[in-house]
Protein: Prospero homeobox 2
Amino acid sequence: MNLSLPDQNMHSSSEGCLEDDKPDIMLPCFRRNMYDEPLASYSNGSIISQLLRKTIHNKRALDESHFFLPSSAAPDSGQEDQSSVSSKDSTMEVASPGAHVSTGGSPEGEHPISDHLQAKRARVENIIRVMAGSPNSRQHGDSERLDTDARDTRETRETYRENKRKQRLPQHQEHSIGGPANRRPGSTNSDNTKDEECHKLKEQLHSMQRLLRQLQEKFLQVYNQEDPEHNDTQEPELTKDRMKVGYLVHQRESQNLQETLKQELSQAVNDCVDRVFKKVSSSGLDLSPQQRMCSSPDLQINMGADRKSQQVGSTQEQPLAEEAAGKPHSLEYYESSEAQSPQDQTEALSLVVRKPAITPLSSVNQTVKRPYPVHQTPFQFNYPTPLHDSQILEHLLKYGPHSSFGGLPCMPPSMDRTSPDSVDLPWEAISMRAKVTSSHLGHHPRPSALGAVAVDNLCLPHVKMECGELQSMLFCLDANLNIQEGLTPSHLKKAKLMFFYTRYPSSNVLKTFFPDVKFNRCITSQLIKWFSNFREFYYIQMEKFARQAIVDGISDVKDMTVSRDSELFRALNMHYNKANDFHVPDRFLEVAEITLHEFYNAISAAKDSDPSWKKAIYKVICKLDSDVPDEFKTSSYL
DNA sequence: GGCGGGCCTG
DNA sequence: CAGGCCCGCC
Structure:
């Protein structure tokens, strides 16, 4: 099965060679201007809600640009600020600093700020941003291009994703609910009463609630541990940034922040669960036959599942599962409300997974994307009866949200993705193992399904949506908790796949697309070295095949093409995509062909007598880099 | 001098 | 793929 990323009709972004043309591509957590909010704004506000609001309703940043610190007008941030004005699409990260509605805090920019707290906040920002999967968090900051080119590719991409989604569906269903047989109407749930359903739901939601609390504690624990790192000098990039702003540690404010965060998180979770209960109660679990069909007595919290036939191209009109969910207004409320008031913040969690339907692109991407690809389905609660809290908690805290529940006895053996090596490992150690395991299982990137919540094929969409929110929170916590110290085989695989898009990634691109990597000089060098090696192999192949073509008497470059059947492509694919589980973008074939032609022409012209004859070719090829799909930004793509 | 890229080698 | 080396650039 060839699951594929969208064949972007890439722009010639010329990364690497023309890095100077691009603004800094920093994750929000590295962005200075993301920190430029005084803690005061949190003191009596809803932090998470504000963060979410910032992310989701960034558009409104226009009205609150005064929140930016004047001193934060670094070249890049300045540009972004402007882009937030000029491009309604490119505001996801741009507008964050000022997009929240202060709930009584004084205007920003006037007070000294505790930078370490800002950094913390920035991490949260980052989480939110990753979750939001901003389609416009492009590295280029070229609002014009974002408004034109990117938009031009939207339809293609969306259509593509839709197509791919359809292709994947059967397989997905297999994964998520154990095969088509289980979805026969009435095959499993015909005997269940509403009460039972409701009871199970409640049990599981309570489990989720408890789980969230645990994660929250975990999160805050890690959060607290971050402080010492602020003086860490082994992270040049970060340290430099931190030093730039100066680290004035205000313990008291830190405590306040933590408490507020904690409170906020609890409240958000509670609200979320409450809403679910409310909906469950109000709906009476009156399932339609169709719903029953896809329903099993268990609560399928298949959070990473594909969204089935959600009008991908028009999600702004039909935000996510709203219809199916029978949600009166909440989604729409968050997605379209331009005049949302601060009081709405208790519902902020919803915003994480459903972003505003400002434009078709943002709408689509925002609603579809999640930090983790579906094939990871960190939560595959697919069990005949509700798991006990202890089971859920144990599993999640043990293996992390990346793992499925395949290791549980109630899961079919075929679903078991984590065993047999799912031995006792600390939380922090799990994600890496899980990722490695995942990557070795031949799972594919599924960009269009990035953590998207299954809708149509789920019996209780509204419930699932809520669970999706919870899962999103877990993802986001997980992303924060699983910063890698080093690079893993999974990262290598991801890098290779990225090579299909970019041959010359800048260090900023690398940082952007390896958000779970704790970057330092060594890591950066290693990543760069990887791509250097990739290029080396790539060019060697090109030269080899070009020379072979000449030997074979090919007289016209036009006679040399690179298709998926080409021997050259197979060689490359074998190298970068050994498992062949990634659909190589067409653009890569084009670039390969161009490269081959370049070599052919150069050799034909006897330019290879010049020791540096390849440099001219490199110069051409480096301009053919594409944007790496945002899906690669997830911390655990593979 | 630091850094990134390329080349060569194992 | 990593390490060592060289080179050019800032």
Summary: The two ends of chain A are 16 Å apart (CA to CA). The CA atoms of residues 555 and 566 of chain A lie 18 Å apart.
